[in-house]
Design a protein that fits this description.
By secondary structure, this protein is an alpha+beta fold. The protein has 2 domains: 1-31; 32-203, Lipocalin. Helix content is 27%, strand content 37%. The protein has 4 helices and 12 strands. The strands form 2 sheets. A 10-stranded antiparallel β-sheet has the order 4-5-7-8-9-10-11-2-3-6. Strands 1-12 form a two-stranded antiparallel sheet. Strand 2 and strand 3 form a beta hairpin. Helix 3 packs antiparallel against helix 4 (166-175). The protein is elongated and about 60 Å long. 20% of the residues are buried. Mean pLDDT is 89; it is low at 1-21 and 24-28.
Length: 204
């Protein structure tokens, strides 16, 4: 009887110990933080250039859609491979006439460019590759990025000629011929565009 009682007590202790361990394990898991991208805290800005002096003209896209939002244990994992779609109709430069020209005489001249779609791949701790489909052509350009807690910032320069957008660029330059003249009297619209992305990751 004593032996049976001892075995019973040991069994109860064992079950209690395992149960406590499982509770602690679940407690640890419940405190893990998961990061994910958030469209509402993502800003995509651009700077185009005019005149031979290369004067910057800024703007942004006010809407960004993410098609593969995932929960990850690190900010880098959450960002890597992010796929996006940006409606051209969300373009905003704080100048209605300029917005209209960009949408109709630049993007409107391109083939099948209602949206800018693509993805971002992180290639190192500071470098990334952005791939964009524009003018029915998919091309990539390099970006630099920084991570500071939940905040991620990307910056890079693309050349629209890589997307065969010379016709669209010429169309815009004709429409803005006088506006893109510098002190030297030369009208110029640059093919380089600086792209900046800032996003504040959500924690769940």
């Amino acid at each position: 009887m004593k032996k049976i009682a001892l075995i019973t007590i040991l069994a109860l202790i064992s079950i209690t110990t395992i149960s406590c361990k499982n509770d602690k394990k679940n407690e640890v898991n419940s405190t893990e933080k998961f990061y994910s991208v958030e469209p509402r805290t993502t800003k995509v800005s651009f700077t185009a250039y005019k005149t031979t002096e290369k004067i910057g003209v800024g703007g942004q896209f006010t809407k960004v859609n993410f098609t593969n939002i995932k929960k990850s244990l690190t900010p880098r994992e959450a960002l890597n491979g992010t796929e996006f779609s940006i409606p051209i109709s969300s373009l905003f430069t704080n100048n209605e006439d300029r917005d209209s020209k960009l949408m109709n005489l630049f993007f409107g001249v391109m083939d099948n460019t209602e949206f800018l779609s693509g993805n971002i791949e992180l290639t190192s701790d500071t470098e990334a590759t952005a791939t964009i489909k524009m003018n029915n052509i998919t091309e990539s350009f390099p970006m630099k990025y920084t991570l500071n807690g939940q905040m991620a910032s990307f910056s890079g320069v693309l050349n629209v000629e890589d997307w065969n957008a010379q016709k669209a660029l010429e169309s815009l330059n004709i429409a803005c011929f006088e506006l893109h003249k510098g002190a030297d009297g030369v009208s110029k619209t640059w093919s380089e565009v600086k792209v900046d992305i800032v996003t504040y990751l959500k924690i769940q």
